[in-house]
Amino acid sequence: MSQLFEDYDLSAPQEIPSGLLVDVALEQGIDLSTSGLTYAVPQSLADLSVGQRVVVPLGRGNKPTSGYVMRVYPLAEKKEDDKKVRYKAVLHRDPHEITLTPDLIELAKWMAAYYCCPIGMVLATMLPAAVKKDTGRVLRTMVSLAENPPEGSKLTGLQKAVVDAARKLHSEGEPWVEPKVLADIAGAKSVSPVQQLLEKKWLVATKESSVASRFDETAQTLRDGPAMPMPVLNNHQQKAVDRIAAGIPAGFGVHVLHGVTGSGKTEVYLRAIEALHAHDPQAGVIVLVPEIALTPQTVARFLGRFEGVAVLHSGLTAAQRHQQWRRIREGQARIVVGARSAIFAPLEKLGLIIVDEEHEYSYKQDQLPRYHARDVAVKRGHLCGIPVVLGSATPSLESYYNAVRRKTYHLIELPERVMGLKLPRVQIVDMTEERRHRQGVHLMSQRLEQLIEHALQRDGQVLLLLNRRGYANYIACPDHRCGWMQHCEYCDASMVYHKDAALPLGGLVRCHHCNAEQMLPQLCPVCSRKVTVFGLGVQRVEEELLRKFPKYLTSDQLLRMDSDTMRTGQDYFESLEKFRRGQVKVLVGTQMIAKGLDFPNVRVVGVISGDTSLNMPDFRASERTFQLIAQVAGRAGRAGESAMASVVVQTFNPEDPSINAAAEHDYPGFAEREMTIREEAGLPPATRMARIVVRDKDLAASVEAASILAGHLATFNEQMGNMVQLRGPAACPVARVAEHYRQQIELTAPDAATLQKLLTLLRNARVLQSDASTAVDVDPVDLL
After folding, report:
1. Distance between CA 724 and CA 762 in Å, rounded?
2. Closest by CA position to 365, among listed 398, 397, 340
3. For a 10 Å CB count at each end of the chain, is N or C smaller?
4. Are strands 85-86 and 63-74 parallel, antiparallel or unpaired?
5. Each residue of 214-253: b (16+ CB within 10 Å) or e?
6. Hey, how many other C-beta atoms are within 10 angstroms of the C-beta on 367?
7. Residue 691: pLDDT over 60
8. What is d(CA 363, CA 340) in angstroms, rounded to the nearest whole number?
9. What's the pTM value of the predicted model, to 2 decimals?
10. Which fold, 688-778?
11. Domain ranges of the chain
């Protein structure tokens, strides 16, 4: 920061005032109003506009601070009781000429109010750090043919070739070119002829600033891949496209596209974009997909169909992210495909927003600002007056409730798979019954083992899901009279054993909450007996597969996919490519393999434990269970021989309604039952919820702070007629994480406006703010 502002004299007298004022929201964690601080505008900056990033002095020391122009207005509009104006403060434009679009500024104001977050932190989130730091920017020398080349000067044959090449480029609309490129076109082995022509005044040179990155080369490789034939839409797809297209001229509207797995939702998105561009060729589009679904195949479908596509995800380098952002802001890219943060893409003229797999919990950010990208997408669509499409095979109950109960969203159904394919038959295996008739410990049932062997014999592929990392989730003394079990030293949670042959003792134990690690203990610290590890994780499934199928499976043909093995997006993409080529026969992993994968040779899909999500202390446990099973089951039967595809769900709760509904592919039945339960219990989506978590390393301090806050809540709630139901304070289900004790208060209101009114009263009274010790989570998706 100091280097950025070293040439700025922020204490110098202000220039001649322009008669304008600006409200500037600073990139600070200070919980100021959404309008920020007010500054007088000098004459030289009279053209400032909303969204521009500026540098302003802050405090007595005139600390240079970045901020965004939220409002520009004449001095005459200032009221006497308005904020103090910094008349003598010196404003500067941001040196990198960064500007957010006006709709993003309005969106930031809404997010700051709705998610109880300082607006500066919202704005800081909207702009990638690589853009602020100008990462990857380089100065390149560019040459062009001189307008009036000197007469009479003699040119060599190679120099004439360079001149001819420059003339050709000029005629093709590319007058400026790098010297090396021009030399290559002319057939020269070096840039010497170009340098000589510059000296002879036949060529002129200039410096061009640009953001350099190799991402465009990668994108071109994907674009140049084998062309995919244009599929013929079935009747349901065509009706879906027609309904979305009909809504484009009408303006804002939310369409919930509920399509079973394999129903061709992506093709509907592509045709909807085509319909938009037929209506307005200059309109931009944002397509949000879960981070894990950003496979090269997904990106290639958009690159193969459209020009001007930008891609934003966590796998990009800083320079690549900056390059893509600049392409979007400068209008070179009109279609943005990306993960959660792509909703902030600075498109000047937005025409359509698509949120694929809208039920995904990864769209919710777990740090300030705690926004949900799906809900922010709906709000941005409302601000821009454009349609929003929310697509999923298992829509979130929030979206489905708005469509079928409140009727504020429009429901579009795709009830059939494309090309006449059928949804696979799902078999439920009762593991309690299995253990009664089978000796030993087996993670896989006999039925699942038979199907795996049958598939491997016929060169088919297998997907196995267990949403639990590691090898075993309990490390304990074998003597029940002792009762010792290893817990994390810093959290109220058990440690998980992870095998690692490279370590002296063959593995380590890790806490999945704070990531604390230590070597696996050999003896019980209480009674000195040799400890035992039990429970299950994906590593143990991996081990059992190699042990039971040595005839058909080698370690190279088995791949585990979880957050321990997939460190980067590139790891994930390369692993999927191996599976696509058939190098890998069995893919075993956590929930990252449950969505977005389309491999026709998958003959068996197995859910090792359908109860993992079901047993969580969260009212969304049934919804998560249904979504996970339905999504992973949808990976099977994507070839013409769908009868060969089998899905097995292993469970200790074979009568559970959510598991049975998923096995029957009955989303409407599941949703109707679950919505009725939530309505009777007064839980979302029938109501709106916020969760406040108070953290402190001292237990008594956390309890006291939470009690004081609960008292303030009760007082203001009483002023509102007790319209909000308050629960707590009470210890969180995981009461201590990373040495911090956690107390929670839950707020439930009949609607968002009532909830926001109470939270606003507390913020205005300065008794509630999101900071390191207090987390305010509006519309939480995780109650642990």
Report:
1. 13
2. 340
3. N
4. unpaired
5. ebeeebeebbeeeeeeeeebbebbeebbebbbebbeeeeb
6. 9
7. yes
8. 5
9. 0.88
10. Alpha-Beta Plaits (3.30.70)
11. 17-127, 137-211, 217-228+235-409, 420-468+538-681, 470-535, 688-778
Token digits of residue 732: 């969180």
Residues whose CB is less than 8 angstroms from the CB of residue 358 and which lie 6 or more positions away in sequence, other chains included: 256, 374, 390, 391, 392, 395, 396, 399
pLDDT of 93 over the 60 cut:
yes
> Does this chain's domain 217-228+235-409 share its CATH topology with 420-468+538-681?
yes
pLDDT tens-digit readout, 535-569 = 899 999 999 999 999 999 999 999 999 888 887 76
- Cα dist from 118 to 64, 112, 342, 737, whole Å: 19, 6, 21, 25
Q: Which of 76-85, 99-108, 381-390, 547-556 has the lowest mean pLDDT?
A: 76-85
Burial zone of 516 (CB within 10 Å; 0-12 exposed, 13-18 middle, 19+ buried): middle
Q: Considering the domain 217-228+235-409, what is its CATH architecture? A: 3-Layer(aba) Sandwich (3.40)
Give the side-chain half-sphere CA count within 13 A for 69: 30
Band of the pLDDT at 15, cuts 50, 70, 90? low
Per-residue pLDDT, averaged over 688-711, amounts to: 97
- Location of structure tokens 């008794």: 767
Taking the chain, what is the end-to-end CA distance rounded to the nearest angstrom? 38
CA-wise closest residue to 630 among 610, 644, 614:
610
Joined together, the tokens standing for residue 361 give 């919990």
Q: Which CATH number fits domain 420-468+538-681: 3.40.109.10, 3.10.290.10, 3.40.50.2300, 3.40.50.300?
A: 3.40.50.300
Which residues, in sequence order, are bridge partners of residue 588?
Answer: 464, 560
For position 59, what pLDDT does the model report? 79
DSSP state of 11: T
> Which residue in 605, 623, 601 sits closest to 614, CA to CA?
623
What percentage of the chain has pLDDT greater than the value 70? 92
452 half-sphere exposure, CB direction, 13 A CA radius: 28
pLDDT value of residue 642: 45
The answer, yes or no, to whether residue 330 has pLDDT greater than 70, is yes
Burial (CB count <10 Å: 0-12, 13-18, 19+), residue 380: buried
User: How many CB atoms neighbour CB 151 within 10 A?
Assistant: 5
The token duo for 95 is 């040196």
Q: Is the dihedral of CA 74, 80, 81, 84 positive or negative?
A: positive
3-state class of 354 per DSSP? strand
Quick check: 26 and 35 in contact, CB under 8 A?
no
pLDDT tens-digit series, residues 127-167 = 998 888 888 777 778 899 898 888 777 889 899 999 999 99
* Residue 395: C-alpha distances to residues 234, 385, 572, 662, 676 (Å): 22, 23, 25, 13, 16
Tell me what pLDDT residue 575 has.
87
Inter-residue contact 66 to 26 (CB < 8 Å): yes
User: Would you state the pLDDT for residue 3?
Assistant: 38
CA separation for the pair 388, 503 (Å, rounded): 51
Q: Indicate if the pLDDT at residue 645 is higher than 60.
A: yes
For residues 294 and 339, what is the distance between their CA atoms, to the nearest angstrom?
A: 8
What mean pLDDT is predicted for residues 657-661? 96
| pLDDT (0 to 100) of residue 228 | 65
